[in-house]
Write the structure tokens for this entry.
Amino acid sequence: MRDRPARTTDKRAERIAEFIAPLRVEPGSRVRLAEDFDPAYRAGVKNKKAGEELLRAGVAQLAEYQRRLAADATSGVLLCLQALDAGGKDGTIRHVMSGVNPQGVRVAGFKVPSTEELSHDYLWRYACRLPRRGEIGIFNRSHYEEVLVVRVHPEHLTRQGLPDGATGKKVWQRRYRQINDWERYLTENGFHVVKVFLNLSKEEQRVRFLKRIDVPERNWKFSAADVRERGFWDSYQDAFDEVLSATSTPWAPWYVVPADRKWFARICAAAVLTHTLIGIDPRYPEVDDKSRAALAGARKRLEREAPR
Ligand code: ATP
Ligand code: MG
């Protein structure tokens, strides 16, 4: 076997790691969103225009890593995206994945569970939609809904038909453990999990809802239910504080991405994903001597077939 080539992207990799370090939730730390993470933070990037070049570079790098991930086909990546309504999940997915081959990406969205889904254990439907080896999977909402919306609205838990021993006060702590264990299991089997929370301010959410009302092309995005859900803002913040504190692990860390500026959130999400891929460092498979001889044979044959 030939030696692996040195990583050519060391400098860029370092810059990306530095860029996202302030967004990472240190495993074991106690998070208070209101104090620890500013939704308007932008790491000194001046404006949208300056950000666009960064995003373009990030997307190009992501595309290259995705090609390698697909060729290597030993690892998969799962990006879990969580946000409150109007947090910008859809736009983030659209922009971040704009340069990658659609065949290598699998996006799954999760809504209120169906009767079929409710008749299984709560992680079942998420397991069904995991990426394959070589793929980048994106969960638009994820298994974290099971400790967020389900916690804020306990009637969802009632509908899950759990046995007596599986409910009660300790249910959330137990679910954090189960989720951590599941993500560890995935990681140990080649599926790298990374989690992004798009951290929107309450005021920016209000402004985005108003825009959905005022701009006709956005009316379809507006939902009165979203405005009702906004009434539970503080409960969601508390639930996120707990989730981020309990489930940011060395194997599946959380990143809190400032989401008040859409363009900045997209750069961050691309950076988090690229950082994960750099960590995996997928390679194009090496061609061994036997395959190289076969390639040479095929070349000769094709050359003989050239029109005279
Ligand atoms: P968009 O509004 O951009 O289409 P969305 O993800 O908000 O995207 P909706 O159909 O508006 O999609 O909302 C889905 C709803 O389903 C959310 O309110 C979410 O909290 C809820 N949901 C997701 N998972 C669960 C779950 N396990 N139990 C109960 N509700 C859930
Ligand atoms: Mg919605």
